[in-house]
Amino acid sequence: MTTSAPGRVHDAHRHLGVLPAHPFYGGPPVNPDTTARATIDQLVADLDREGTERALVIPNYGVPDPTASFALNELVVEAAQRDDRIRAGLWTSPRPQDAVATEEALALAGEDGVAALKLSFLLGGGVDDPACRPQLDAVFAAARQHDLVVHVHTSPGAASDLDQVGRLVDRYADDVAVHLVHMGGGMSGHIKLIGSRFFDWVAAGKRVYTDTSWAIGFAPRWFATEIERRGTGADRVLFASDQPWGDFEGEYARLLAATGGGELADLFFRRNFESLHGS
Fold it and tell me: Averaged in consecutive runs of 10 residues, what is the pLDDT profile of the chain (279 residues)?
């Protein structure tokens, strides 16, 4: 199959904002996200340089203090309202200690340009933790009310493992779109998701979506092969750069090679975003 670049590219998951330096893993304070952008103008310049026509933009996160990410919610809403190429995703938290901040974030859910709510268990909490259930119910209720997509980080092990995060799909995805960021996150997650669970959820009528950011090399190609073999799921996968934690050029090249161009590439790079977030 001849590989041809899609005419237009939409990015379903990237971040805005600069975080404070942090001593990760016992080392000195560092800022590993070297391409983080502090301003809307810098973000727009990146979109122009890349040729990215549409983007879902979420507050940057990664340091243990979530207040930095909550503080960026108004910035991403402002970005979406300033430039109609941009959709905003709001940072939320399942942790009970963040309940007030999450309530304040959800008060923005009806603002023009907001398209998603972001959840991550990297900073604590758990899908089945009773103390987290009120926040989780509130996030999904807001998504249901405003027809938003809930983005959930996936990575191997602990509370972000697909075994855990998949319960959110079981619990909420009958009537709320759930986007599993990073396609299960790593070897075990890819195999769990692509091997059966993703297709089982689609067959069961769940509103489940994913992207190929951070994916191990074999996984996007296997996913594309399974979608074509099974004849289902082509409308549920999106391109995402995860800038500044991902790499736009690398993510783009890998997914283009996996799809081989043509119809599947057009769906992943453009049309699925338009269907999910509006054209």
Answer: 64 97 96 97 97 97 94 98 98 98 98 98 96 98 98 96 98 98 97 98 98 96 97 98 96 95 94 93
Q: Are 97 and 128 in contact (CB under 8 A)?
A: no
Distances, alpha carbon 258 to alpha carbons 188, 221, 261, 262, in Å: 20, 4, 8, 11
Distance from chain centroid for Cα 69: 15
Claim: this prediction has a pTM higher than 0.90: yes
Looking only at the bridges linking them, the beta strands covering 114-119 and 149-153 are parallel
- Cα-Cα end-to-end distance for the chain: 29
- Write b or e for each residue in 179-208: b if 16 or more Cβ atoms lie within 10 A of its Cβ, otherwise e: bbbbbbbbeebbbbbbeebbbebbeeebbb
Give the up-direction half-sphere exposure of residue 112: CA atoms within 13 A in the CB hemisphere. 8
- Cβ contacts of 57 within 8 Å, gap of 6 or more: 14, 15, 16, 43, 76, 79, 80, 86, 87, 88, 89
| Tokens standing for residue 126 | 């758990």
Cβ–Cβ under 8 Å, residues 212 and 241: no
CB atoms within 10 A of CB 153: 20
DSSP 169-190: HHHHTTTSEEEEETTTSSHHHH
In three-state secondary structure terms, 166 is helix
Reported for 35-40, long-range contacts at CB under 8 A and 24+ positions apart, including other chains, are: 35/243, 35/244, 36/60, 36/244, 37/244, 40/16, 40/75, 40/78, 40/79, 40/82, 40/83
Give just the sign of the alpha carbon dihedral 256, 90, 202, 154: positive
Q: Across the strands, what pairs with 11?
A: 55
